[in-house]
Design a protein that fits this description.
The chain has helices spanning 20-31, 47-56, 63-74, 93-101, 113-118, 133-147, 150-178, 193-209, 222-243, 246-251, 254-288, 301-309, 314-327, 330-345, 347-364, 368-373, 376-388, 420-424, 445-450, 471-488; strands at 77-82, 85-90, 187-190, 394-397, 403-405, 408-410, 416-419, 489-492, 501-503, 507-509, 515-519. It is an alpha+beta fold. Strand 1 (77-82) and strand 2 (85-90) form a beta hairpin. It binds protoporphyrin IX containing FE.
Length: 520
């Protein structure tokens, strides 16, 4: 059944007798009439029954697979009601580009807002998750200058490079200390995920606070480990809360909510201490008057820049910095696990990327930005990993005007989700979709062959004005780490089966893969 609906919809011979969704789309192509919203194929009209099914069958954790299966059964568009949420789900680039055209100036996406205000917590009132509309836009334009613009990237790239190099130094020492084989060429097989989480937190702190926190030392602080746990807990408790109504939330969701709120408390406390310190430094440097900026011209991270410019209130700086901290650790540590695994199980691809990296690194004379520019396969590797393992499995929008998707009418204000996992694995969109091939992104060949010129195929960071604000940090952080790892180690894995994945708020391996690092 799986690929049936992907064939051209207006050809009689492609009708599939048991595929209701397919029939509807095909039929609409024949009489040319735009079908009503109610006719969109759906997974069951009763949201509460669906919620119970989701809960019983643990579908929240397998949401990506559930979506893939449902598209294969119902066609490229379907409706789903789960608890309080109702959405139209789509997965084809042409539909996503249509959605993008209707998102408006202040794109809105799904938030935890209704429940955040339902039970009072100390911190939700300060802004996290509450931003949509004009308030979001104003903050976002200011943030973009510090994290998205090329001048900002130039400022923080050397900081990321420093952390990536230190990570590899730490890893080389570990392999030498704990590995097998002759001295200088030892190998170590291990689960690198705890080290990758430390790397991601160290890198975030360096870019956001302009501060190193010493996570590669032999005794990293417990406080940082607690921060990592808090982000994990916050992410894991979010999805069910998105679907529960207030009354149910109070009865069965209360422990979840308590865990969620206390995780946020921890994340805020971690950020608050640093923000306070930054504020004091800034006040004292202004008191002294003379130097340029909080640290006499030294780059003091995104926080320092925002404080120095003084365009956001202290409360808004806190909310935004905390959101950057919360959004910046698991989102990079997890794709790195997938990347090391895929490079390990595809040794030929690994070697091709390494060859390119070696040349570019040798020619860059220590300039990390130049090295990345000359090694497009690194960028391709990151895109390829996020295609197969999108950190966020959906991107949501509430269009501000009525739109037509797959010839169905979708009214303004409907929640529409672009489902990235099925998109990335679709044979309709990608040639040989299950193969790991970073080179596919360097040629326009495939795009021509697929007949898709919308460009809406690499969407792991979302799209438009509301795309991921940490995108430039993440892309550079991932590429730099992979570059230094490939220069230092050969990677291999002892098994080649696919990794089982699970969805908390982000897509991650069920069990972190073990990787063999062999010193080069
Ligand atoms: C590979 C890594 C990452 C991926 C795949 C990713 C993905 C995403 C996606 C899909 C969105 C929603 C975009 C949309 O609705 O169009 C988003 C939003 C966001 N991300 Fe990321 N992200 C990553 C890394 C980061 C990092 C490193 C940070 C912080 C330093 C970050 C902070 C945020 C924030 C604050 C938002 C909300 C932006 C807004 O609504 O204005 N992300 N991310």
């Amino acid at each position: 059944v799986s690929q049936v609906w992907m064939r051209p919809f207006d050809h009689e011979e492609h009708e599939h007798p048991c595929d209701r969704g397919h029939q509807r789309v095909r039929k609409s192509g024949v009489d040319g009439r735009v079908r009503s919203f109610d006719e969109i194929p759906h997974t069951g009209r009763n949201g509460w029954v669906n919620l119970v099914k989701f809960w019983r069958e643990d579908r929240f954790r397998q949401l990506h697979k559930h979506m893939e299966k449902t598209f294969n059964t119902l066609g490229p568009i379907y409706r789903e009601h789960v608890g309080t949420q109702s959405s139209v789900n789509i997965m084809l680039p042409s539909d996503i580009s249509e959605l993008f055209r209707s998102e408006g100036l202040h794109p809105r996406r799904m938030t935890l807002q209704p429940w955040a205000t339902h039970r009072e917590t100390r911190h939700h009132s300060k802004g996290v998750f509450l931003k949509n509309g004009e308030e979001w836009r104003a903050d976002r334009l200011l943030l973009n200058k510090e994290v998205m613009m090329s001048a900002a990237v130039k400022r923080f790239l050397p900081l990321l490079d420093e952390v990536a190099r230190d990570f590899c130094r730490m890893l080389r020492a570990k392999v030498e200390r704990e590995g097998r084989g002759e001295e200088g060429r030892r190998s170590l097989t291990m689960d690198p995920s705890p080290d990758l989480f430390r790397f991601a937190l160290e890198a975030s702190c360096h870019v956001i606070y302009g501060e190193r926190i010493g996570l590669f030392s032999s005794s990293p602080s417990l406080e940082s480990q607690k921060f990592i746990w808090a982000v994990e807990r916050m992410l894991a408790t979010t999805p069910p809360l998105l679907y529960l109504p207030p009354r149910l939330l109070l009865r069965i969701g209360a422990p979840l909510w308590t865990q969620h709120a206390s995780a946020w408390d921890h994340i805020f406390t971690h950020a608050e201490a640093r923000i306070q310190r930054g504020y004091q430094q800034l006040s004292s440097s202004h008191g002294r008057g003379a130097e340029a900026g909080a640290a006499g011209g030294r780059y003091t991270g995104v926080l320092g820049q925002l404080m120095e410019k003084g365009q956001l209130s202290l409360d808004l700086i806190k909310a935004n910095i905390t959101e950057l901290m919360a959004g910046g650790v698991d989102t990079t540590a997890v794709p790195l696990q997938f990347a090391l695994f895929e490079l390990g199980r595809n040794p030929k691809v690994q070697e091709r990327v390494r060859q390119q990296v070696r040349v570019s690194w040798a020619q860059a004379g220590g300039d990390p930005q130049k090295a990345l520019q000359e090694a497009p396969l690194l960028k391709g590797t990151v895109k390829e990993i996020l295609r197969l393992y999108p950190v966020g499995t959906t991107v949501q929008r509430y269009p501000i005007k009525d739109i037509v998707l797959q010839n169905y009418h979708v009214p303004a204000g409907t929640m529409v989700q672009a489902c990235l996992y099925p998109l990335g694995r679709s044979a309709e969109v990608f040639e040989d979709p299950l193969s790991f091939n970073p080179e596919r992104w360097s040629s326009s060949r495939e795009e021509g062959q697929r007949g898709d010129r919308t460009g809406f195929r690499s969407l792991a960071f979302g799209f438009g004005a509301r795309q991921c604000v940490g995108r430039r940090i993440a892309e550079n952080e991932l590429q730099l780490l992979l570059m230094h790892v490939l220069l230092s180690f050969h990677l291999s894995v002892s098994y080649t089966e696919d990794i089982s994945t699970t969805c908390t708020l982000i897509l991650q391996p069920e069990t972190p893969p073990r990787i063999t690092f062999s010193k080069l």
